[in-house]
Design brief:
Bound molecules: BIS(adenosine)-5'-pentaphosphate
Shape: globular
Radius of gyration: 17 Å
Oligomer: single chain
Order of helices and strands: EHEHHHEHEHEEHHEH
Strand content: 5-15%
Length: 224
């Protein structure tokens, strides 16, 4: 059976930053519901229009919308390729739906990597985040700026400060995380999946080493 892991953690903790590196290193597929929803918004689809209201307010998009997107995406991943979920599931209902989707493809969630950092760190990171709407690259004006201010190093597109990274929306996203997503930790703690906690309040390379050890289950070598 191909491997399937979930990167879980609050907004700004580094799921995207770590997920990109991990997927590159392992040759796995990343399924990122935030990116799928932003793509739907850019395309102006009905689903995208519907999602916009929730996203801009820092609320979760309804479960059936994201589960439908994930279902479609999983069906396109070759059987032999590992999957990293980033930003999904975010509710217990989504986690239960995911089990059903994966079972149809002879997969199951193997491990949860839970990234953690204090709220003040998350707020500062999101205030400084700049994202490329074209290729999805992520920068930070404080911790990892692009070579040329406001321009993506990878594709040259103008960078944006995400609408939902404004401080008042970030505060709401953190509340929503505590209320709706944190219960997932208990859900998975009580399941056969292993939950591995990783301190995300360290330099990116150190966190990556810990994430790769967590995925490998080797307790510290850092290799996948
Ligand atoms: P989504 O896009 O998934 O946002 P999120 O989960 O809130 O996560 P972020 O993308 O904000 O943070 P991240 O952990 O990936 O951090 P990053 O690596 O970028 O979702 C957006 C919205 O879509 C939701 O609010 C909701 O409305 C909707 N949605 C999505 N999925 C959904 C679902 N399943 N159900 C319902 N609704 C859904 O890092 C942040 C910054 O910090 C960057 O600038 C980065 O450069 C920097 N950084 C990262 N690591 C470090 C480090 N170690 N040290 C210093 N800086 C660092």
């Amino acid at each position: 059976m191909s491997r399937t892991i979930i990167l879980l953690g609050p907004p700004g903790v580094g799921k995207g930053t770590q997920g990109v590196r991990l997927a590159d290193a392992l040759g796995w597929e990343r399924i990122v519901t935030g990116d799928l929803l932003r793509a739907a918004r850019r395309q102006g689809s009905e689903l995208g229009q519907r999602a916009r209201r929730y996203m801009d307010a820092g609320e979760l998009v309804p479960d059936e919308v994201v589960v439908g997107l994930v279902e479609e995406k999983v069906s396109r991943v070759p059987d032999e390729t590992g999957i990293i979920f980033d930003g999904f599931p975010r509710t217990v209902a989504q986690a239960q739906a995911l089990d059903g989707v994966l079972a149809e493809h002879d997969r199951e969630v193997e491990r949860i990597v839970l990234l953690e950092a204090p709220d003040e760190v998350l707020v500062k990171r999101l205030a400084g985040r700049r994202s490329c709407p074209e290729c999805g690259a992520v920068y930070n004006v404080h911790f990892g700026p692009p070579e040329e201010e406001g321009t993506c190093d990878r594709c040259g597109h103008d960078l944006v400060h995400r609408e939902d990274d404004r401080p008042e929306t970030v505060r709401r996203r953190l509340d929503v995380y505590r209320e709706e997503t944190e219960p997932l930790v208990e859900f998975y703690d009580e399941s056969p999946c292993e939950v591995v906690r990783v301190d995300g309040d360290r330099p990116v390379d150190e966190v990556q080493e810990a994430v790769r050890s967590a995925v490998a289950g080797d307790g510290g070598s850092g290799s996948p």
